[in-house]
């Protein structure tokens, strides 16, 4: 049943992609502020998929797909959540010092079967319960899912599961078998007091060091560092677009490419909220296996006046 | 608004006296301007010292809404440069460091050079940093470069949220 549900969600995603959208919609999670002083304060967060940054004009993000992780790694529940026509809003009470991560992240079997669309998965309105569970699924484990494909005679066979199951069920012995995976992450960060390190999950594209995402100021060169499936994400193009795009004629996107260490240096021209997007389609080695990997990543970063 | 005032008019400069019998003092006079605002709040002010490498060398004072039961700390992060460079690592309130906000007018604070936050500083070049942030108002940062180890009286003036700031160093 789980397989069927996932295929329906994937098919809906694919259909939505091709449904005549002139350009890809953008998913984002936008906090009311990213720098906070005082324990017990609140931030309020908007989450939506829209054309403009950061104006809700299309679809809300599914609040059940958002996971909030505190500085100590514990999952925190959102408060006062409401999913409206164009955006989802919820509050977050900040009871610990350090960096909170607010994310919508998911994995799929990849291999071109409803892999993550760039910029965002549509909200799973009406989709069956194939949505990821609320608890963080990916921290530090490669539990999957992975997809595998091979040919037996004239038939194309497909399989899905964890790498452990891949071995245990003998799928690794199938002739010409190809492993694939897809990862998608949309996230933002809020820091109370002193920033704490953001843990690397090892799945898909993610910030993996460099300048802390809540330590960005104009007039300084910052280092944005990325990993893909736990290894430095080299040669990945980052697109950064500042908010308020409705008030200018040009997108004025900043484009930079990561070096062999996964680092791209950026100097932000103006303060404000920025939407960062990156994708990587690679052949990766995960636990010794060759895997076709599709990763997509979006973050909302606040740049303060330096 | 960030206001870096590099010029400062020394009113009296004298060489340090080796082996001075009395303890030295850093006297600060900080003027908070009287502003006509529909909703006026006394500004949050942070005073600290940076060394020649722009590293924080000492925290001298933080004036904020200590007694606010709803959390006066909420607006500390608006004293933006201070918060980022040092404030966010401090445990507040802290004795000798934090005090309530001060009203418009000339506010004086004095620090001994052989005790407290200045005691561990070696003679040399430093910068006094005074940053103010006013609720429903603006921000301003005033810097006064000075030399620790020489008597001096230096003045700089802010434009909006801070008035005349005078630093008097005696050995």
Polypeptide structure, described:
The complex is a heterodimer of chains A (306) and B (171). Chain A has two helices and 21 strands. In chain A, the strands form three sheets. In chain A, strands 2, 5, 6, 9, 10, 11, 12, 14, 17, 18, 20 and 21 form a twelve-stranded mixed sheet that branches. In chain A, strands 1, 3, 4, 7 and 8 form a five-stranded antiparallel sheet that branches. In chain A, strands 13, 15, 16 and 19 form a four-stranded antiparallel sheet that branches. The N and C termini of chain A lie far apart (53 Å). Chain B is mostly beta strands and 171 residues long. About 6% of the residues of chain B have low confidence. The longest helix of chain B has 6 residues. At the A-B interface, strand 2 of A face helix 1 of B.
Largest interface: A-B, 13 and 13 residues
Write the element-wise H/E pattern of chain B from the N-terminal end onward: EEEEHEEEEEE
Distance between the termini of chain B: 34 Å
In angstroms, what is the radius of gyration of chain A?
A: 19 Å
Number of domains of chain A: 1
Overall shape of chain B: it is: globular
């Amino acid at each position: 049943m789980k397989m069927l549900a996932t295929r329906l969600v994937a098919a809906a995603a694919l259909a939505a992609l091709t449904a005549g959208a002139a350009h890809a919609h953008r998913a984002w999670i936008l906090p009311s502020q990213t720098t906070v002083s005082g324990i017990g304060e609140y931030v309020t967060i908007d989450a939506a998929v829209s054309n403009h940054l950061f104006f809700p004009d299309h679809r809300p993000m599914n609040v059940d797909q958002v996971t909030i992780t505190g500085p100590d790694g514990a999952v925190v529940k959102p408060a006062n959540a409401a999913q409206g026509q164009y955006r989802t809003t919820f509050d977050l009470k900040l009871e610990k010092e350090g960096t909170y991560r607010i994310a919508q992240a998911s994995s799929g079997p990849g291999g071109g079967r409803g892999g993550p669309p760039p910029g965002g998965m549509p909200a799973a309105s009406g989709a069956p319960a194939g949505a990821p569970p609320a608890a963080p699924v990916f921290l530090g484990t490669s539990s999957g899912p992975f997809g595998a494909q091979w040919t037996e005679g004239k038939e194309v066979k497909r399989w899905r599961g964890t790498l452990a199951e891949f071995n245990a069920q003998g799928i690794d012995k199938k002739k010409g078998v190809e492993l694939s995976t897809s990862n998608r992450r949309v996230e933002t960060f809020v820091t109370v007091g002193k920033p704490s390190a953001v843990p690397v999950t090892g799945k898909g594209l993610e910030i993996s060091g460099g300048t802390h995402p809540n330590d960005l100021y104009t007039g300084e060169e910052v280092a944005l560092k990325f990993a893909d499936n736990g290894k430095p994400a080299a040669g990945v193009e980052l697109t950064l677009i500042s908010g308020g795009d409705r008030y200018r004629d040009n997108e004025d996107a900043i484009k930079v490419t990561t070096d062999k260490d996964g680092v791209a240096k950026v100097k932000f021209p103006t303060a404000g909220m920025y939407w960062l997007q990156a994708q990587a389609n690679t052949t990766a080695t995960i636990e010794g296996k060759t895997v076709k990997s599709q990763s997509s990543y979006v973050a909302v970063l606040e740049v303060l006046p330096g | 608004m960030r206001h870096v005032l590099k010029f400062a008019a020394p009113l009296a400069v004298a060489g340090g006296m080796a082996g001075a019998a009395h303890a030295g003092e850093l006297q600060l006079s900080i003027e908070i301007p009287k502003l006509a605002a529909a909703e006026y709040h006394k500004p949050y002010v942070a005073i600290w010292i940076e060394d020649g490498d722009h590293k924080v060398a000492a925290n001298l004072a933080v004036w904020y809404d200590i007694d606010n039961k709803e959390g006066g700390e909420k607006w500390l992060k608006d004293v933006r440069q201070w918060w980022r460079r040092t404030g966010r690592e401090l445990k507040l309130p802290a004795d000798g460091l934090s005090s309530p906000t001060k009203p418009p007018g000339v506010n004086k604070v004095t620090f001994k050079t052989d005790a407290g936050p200045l005691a561990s500083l070696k003679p040399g070049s430093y910068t006094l940093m005074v940053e103010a942030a006013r609720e429903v108002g603006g921000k301003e940062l005033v810097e006064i470069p000075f030399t620790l180890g020489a008597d001096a009286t230096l003045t700089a003036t802010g434009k909006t949220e801070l008035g005349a700031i005078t630093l008097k160093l005696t050995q």
